[in-house]
C-alpha cells in the first residue's frame, strides 16, 4: 500500500505516467498524474486525478528533477528507458 504524497509511476492504457498519491483506501489509490511535454514532464493546468487499482501502481519513484524553473518542467529518470 502507498501513503498520501508518495511519488509513483502508474500504468494507464498500457503506458506509464508519473504522479503523486492524493488519497488511498482499501481498494485503490487516487493519483494526480503529470503530462508529457517533449522529453520532459509537467503538471497539467487542470488536475488529472483518478483512482488506480493497486496493481496499476507500478512502483514508487524519486522526486521529479526540476529542469526548467520558468516553465515548471521535470525530468523523470525512471521513465527515460520507456519514453526515451
Automatic annotation (TrEMBL):
UniProt superkingdom: Eukaryota
Protein name: Uncharacterized protein
Organism encoding this protein: Periplaneta americana (American cockroach)
